[in-house]
Structures are given as structure tokens and as C-alpha cells.
Design brief:
With 350 residues, the chain is an all-alpha fold. The chain has a domain at 46-184. The protein contains 18 helices and 2 strands. It has helices at residues 2-15, 50-58, 63-74, 78-94, 97-105, 110-125, 130-136, 138-146, 153-164, 169-182, 187-200, 205-218, 228-238, 247-262, 272-284, 288-298, 304-307, 314-331; strands at residues 42-43, 301-302. Helix 8 (138-146) runs antiparallel to helix 9 (153-164), helix 11 runs antiparallel to helix 12 and helix 14 runs antiparallel to helix 15.
């Protein structure tokens, strides 16, 4: 573990701004989340299970990643499988050697194929001709989903692909039915559906919130789906929809996420994105003391989302907001909500 941590820290020194390489797990920062200095804060840190797989991949070894994903499949830990697949695919974009070695060693491994499909989707997404390039990989996406068994993650990828291809409602509903048949409360699949609804009807803020609230209401206690209304609230607040819905619904979405955050350990990478997004929304709702508490709980773990939606340097934006909220709460003076690129708030004027 000591050698692994040393290698992690070495990678960090060259990748601090973009956060594409591993970060140390929560145990490396015990006690610092009450007052983390700027230099302690890391971007998009992996948890203690993913970090060793990324370190090994950086050295060309695929076996830890293969073992990690095989375990999520065997134990049906679909939320972890979804997140780990996305992170491994993101890593493979700049360091693909380990993934090539994986395919050479076992071309039929369903976990290796899943990472490859996710990687192909991510690459197509940034193409200027996104819809056409996504159509070209549709057979690969379809095959992965058809052979997925009980795994909903390939269907989540298929849902994302359908949105990018601007597929019709009938096709999307067919994919959606297959996804929820495998896991009726899978967060990633519901997030894909929320994004599809938002893309199909950009002004449908109330409809998006309706969908998210229904999913959260039907989800079991502690499910990640309890945070789906927070995503819908974020969209309302950032896409001009705040006036289209009852503001009380936005506060309720934040309350649901607060309860979910309270059940998670402090200064831990796994709930970091939830807490970063929750802090953002709470600032926009002018609930600054609660936002400060979420920033305290997230400790040294900043995430690219949501800060990359309004700044090219998400880590720097996180630090600006954190400093601004701390100062505002201490002084008990109003603080401006998070703003867009180039706005006063976007330059740290909280």
C-alpha cells in the first residue's frame, strides 16, 4: 500500500488541473476535512478500490481492473460497476496500452468489452459529427447490451448512445424497458433518461423534475436515485428553468440529497460528486451554511462536475466557491450564486 500511495502521489504532481489520473483514498487525509488547505484538495479522486486498478493500468497491467469489474458483476454492484467502467474508459483515452493487453489476453471478457464500448461512446461524443459517429458504433453497443445478462450498465451506455444519435421516443422507450427490467432503481440509467428528456424538450423543466421526483419517491431508502431530483434542480437553476417550477420543489430536491449525504462517510471519494453538486445547488438557493457543511464533508475531494460547467479549471472554481462561502458565512453577508463563465461569480466574487 505504501508503494501504491507513493506512485499515486507521483502521478498527481503532473495531472493536478485536469484530474485524469488516480488520487489517494480517503484514509490518506484523515482529519483534514475540517480545514483542508488548497494544496490538499484533489480533483476526481478514485476510491480505495479503483485507485490500485488505475495505478496498475498506468504501468500497463490490466489484471487489477479486470478483477475489480469481475467482482462488481459477480456481486451485482451495478452502481459501482457503472462508475468504475466510466473511470477506466476515461483513463484508457490517454493510456490505452493496458486495455489492448486485456483484449489480447481475453478477447471475450465481458468486462473488457464493456470498457471498450464505453470508451468508444466517449470518443464519439466529442466528435463534431456526433450523431453519425455514434451510428457507426451502434452494432457494438447493441451487441454488448444484448449479451449483458442481468447487467444494466450496457443498457445505460445504449441509452446514452440513443440520446447522442437523437433516436426517436419509441427506440428510447424500448431500451429503457430493457434497462429497468434489469435494475428498476439504477441511477445511471435514470440519469440517462433524464438527459434524454431534457435534450428532447429543452424547456421541459417541470417534466424533468416530475420524472426525477417519481424515481426518487419509488427508490428504496439510501438509493442513489434519491439524488436524481438534485440533478433536475441543477438543470433548472442553470438552464433558465428556475422560474418555471415552484421553488419549493428545488428546496425539496436539496433536502433529499442532504439526507443521502448524511448517510455517507465524511471525506470520502465515493459521495464526493453528490456533495459537490449539492453545495453548488445550495449556494444557488442561498442556503449558505448548509453549503458550507457539504464543502466541509467533502473534505479534499473536489469533482469536475458541476464546476466544469462554468470554468475551464474546475478545481480552481471549486476553491473559489469554497473560499467565498466560508467568508460569506463567517461575515453573515449575502453571497452571489454560482454564475456562468466570465460572470462576476465565475471569477470568484462570492
Amino acid at each position: 500500500m505504501v508503494d501504491t500511495m507513493a506512485r499515486l502521489r507521483a502521478f498527481l504532481r503532473t495531472t493536478r488541473l485536469r484530474g485524469t489520473l488516480p488520487r489517494p483514498p480517503a484514509g490518506s487525509f484523515d482529519g483534514c476535512f475540517d480545514d483542508c488547505s488548497d494544496d490538499d484538495v484533489l480533483l476526481d479522486a478514485p476510491d480505495h478500490r479503483l485507485a490500485p486498478a488505475l495505478v496498475a493500468a498506468a504501468h500497463g497491467a490490466h489484471e487489477p481492473a479486470a478483477a475489480l469489474l469481475a467482482d462488481t458483476r459477480a456481486r451485482e454492484r451495478w452502481e459501482h460497476r457503472d462508475r468504475y467502467t466510466s473511470r477506466l474508459a476515461a483513463f484508457a483515452r490517454s493510456r490505452p496500452e493496458w486495455l489492448r493487453a486485456w483484449h489480447a489476453a481475453d478477447p471475450e471478457d465481458p468486462d473488457g468489452r464493456l470498457v471498450t464500448v464505453r470508451l468508444a461512446l466517449d470518443r464519439c461524443w466529442e466528435s463534431p459529427d456526433r450523431a453519425e459517429t455514434l451510428r457507426q458504433i451502434t452494432p457494438m453497443v447493441t451487441e454488448a447490451a444484448a449479451n449483458s445478462g442481468r447487467d444494466p450498465v450496457p443498457w445505460r451506455i445504449a441509452l446514452d448512445s440513443a440520446r447522442g444519435r437523437r433516436a426517436g421516443h419509441a427506440e428510447f422507450e424500448r431500451l429503457w424497458a430493457e434497462a429497468v427490467r434489469r435494475d428498476p432503481h439504477h441511477y445511471g440509467c435514470h440519469l440517462a433518461a433524464l438527459r434524454y428528456l431534457a435534450a428532447a424538450s429543452p424547456g421541459a423543466h417541470r417534466e424533468c423534475l416530475d420524472f426525477a421526483e417519481t424515481a426518487a419517491r419509488d427508490a428504496p431508502e439510501g438509493s442513489a436515485l434519491r439524488a436524481l431530483p438534485l440533478r433536475a434542480a441543477f438543470r433548472c437553476l442553470t438552464r433558465g428553468g428556475a422560474g418555471a417550477v415552484d421553488r419549493a420543489r428545488l428546496h425539496t430536491a436539496a433536502d433529499l440529497a442532504l439526507a443521502l449525504s448524511a448517510a455517507q462517510p465524511a471525506a470520502d471519494p465515493w459521495p464526493a460528486e453528490l456533495r459537490n453538486l449539492l453545495a453548488y445547488v445550495l449556494v444557488r438557493l442561498e442556503r449558505r451554511p448548509e453549503a458550507l457543511e457539504q464543502l466541509r464533508l467533502t473534505g479534499p475531494y473536489a469533482t469536475s462536475f458541476p464546476w466544469d460547467r462554468e470554468a475551464d479549471d474546475p478545481l480552481g472554481r471549486f476553491l473559489q466557491v469554497r473560499d467565498g462561502v466560508r467568508a460569506a458565512v463567517a461575515a453573515e453577508v449575502p453571497v452571489r450564486g454560482c454564475g456562468g463563465r466570465g460572470s462576476p461569480a465565475g471569477r470568484g466574487a462570492h
